[in-house]
Automatic annotation (TrEMBL):
<dbReference type="Pfam" id="PF00072">
    <property type="entry name" value="Response_reg"/>
</dbReference>
<keyword id="KW-0238">DNA-binding</keyword>
<keyword id="KW-0805">Transcription regulation</keyword>
<feature type="modified residue" description="4-aspartylphosphate">
    <location>
        <position position="52"/>
    </location>
</feature>
<feature type="domain" description="Response regulatory">
    <location>
        <begin position="2"/>
        <end position="122"/>
    </location>
</feature>
<feature type="domain" description="HTH luxR-type">
    <location>
        <begin position="144"/>
        <end position="213"/>
    </location>
</feature>
<dbReference type="GO" id="GO:0006355">
    <property type="term" value="P:regulation of DNA-templated transcription"/>
</dbReference>
<dbReference type="InterPro" id="IPR011006">
    <property type="entry name" value="CheY-like_superfamily"/>
</dbReference>
<dbReference type="GO" id="GO:0003677">
    <property type="term" value="F:DNA binding"/>
</dbReference>
<dbReference type="Pfam" id="PF00196">
    <property type="entry name" value="GerE"/>
</dbReference>
<dbReference type="InterPro" id="IPR016032">
    <property type="entry name" value="Sig_transdc_resp-reg_C-effctor"/>
</dbReference>
<dbReference type="InterPro" id="IPR039420">
    <property type="entry name" value="WalR-like"/>
</dbReference>
<dbReference type="InterPro" id="IPR000792">
    <property type="entry name" value="Tscrpt_reg_LuxR_C"/>
</dbReference>
<dbReference type="InterPro" id="IPR001789">
    <property type="entry name" value="Sig_transdc_resp-reg_receiver"/>
</dbReference>
<dbReference type="GO" id="GO:0000160">
    <property type="term" value="P:phosphorelay signal transduction system"/>
</dbReference>
<dbReference type="InterPro" id="IPR058245">
    <property type="entry name" value="NreC/VraR/RcsB-like_REC"/>
</dbReference>
<keyword id="KW-0597">Phosphoprotein</keyword>
Length: 229
């Protein structure tokens, strides 16, 4: 199998390359970052690309964004992502970005060489390999998303203004409603998000749920003063 490796850690990159070569695979390219990834794929035509999630220059999401781009264009090369952490939002995008033939493994949880090589073979053959921790966190994210869907449009507006740091009276002024109505909406938000009344950080937790929700945008209540109550 022809394999491309894109990993900024030289020791890990060389170690993976040696492991793959010893297993009979051909490492056609080794890259320290994603800047030349597209050119390397065109030049070497790999069957599989192994990508780190966080690489230079920002060390945030270069690798997984590159993986999403590769998968969105077709089924070659197959993609195996290696990461130190579960990037929930991008992991979900990776899964949805194309057909089967991809994997997402956590580096610290790859404990057996044979399992790693088997995962590579499975991905190359069109299968899907996900670390159990990735699945667990994605399921938890889906549950959070489901809670957000319970909110009414007005409750979402109130929550969005809370995320901006607005106090209750400021929210009332922005939405042209009473402070009492704001308190009722906030109570409904807490209840629908299943936040424990004994938790003194409910406001913070609610804001975090809002910020974590896909497509969460600030509300524009000033555009519709006579809108939803």
């Amino acid at each position: 199998m022809r394999i491309l490796i894109c990993e900024d850690s030289v020791l890990l990159r060389e170690g993976i390359a040696r492991l793959l070569t010893d297993a009979g695979h051909e490492v056609v390219a080794q890259l320290p970052d994603a800047t030349a990834l597209e050119a390397a794929i065109r030049a070497s035509d790999p069957d599989l690309a192994i990508l780190d999630v966080r690489m230079p220059p920002t060390r945030t999401n270069e690798g997984i964004l590159a993986a999403i781009g590769i998968r969105s264009r077709g089924d070659r090369p197959r993609v195996l992502v290696l990461s130190q952490y579960v990037e929930e939002r991008y992991a979900a995008d990776l899964i949805a970005s194309g057909p089967a033939g991809f994997g997402y493994l956590l580096k610290d949880r790859v404990a057996d060489v044979r399992d790693f090589l088997a995962a590579i073979e499975q991905v190359a053959n069109g299968g899907t390999v996900l670390d159990p921790e990735v699945v667990t966190q994605l399921l938890a994210r889906r549950r959070r998303d489901a809670r957000m869907e319970r909110l009414t449009p007005r409750e979402r507006q109130v929550l969005a203004l809370m995320a901006e740091g607005a106090a209750n009276q400021a929210i009332a002024d922005r939405l042209y409603i009473s402070a009492g109505s704001v308190e009722k909406h906030i109570s409904a938000v807490f209840q629908k998000l299943e936040l424990d009344p004994e938790d003194g950080n409910r406001r913070v937790l609610a804001v975090l749920a809002h910020l974590d929700a896909p497509g969460s945008d600030p509300s524009r209540p000033h555009d519709a003063p006579g809108g939803i109550r």
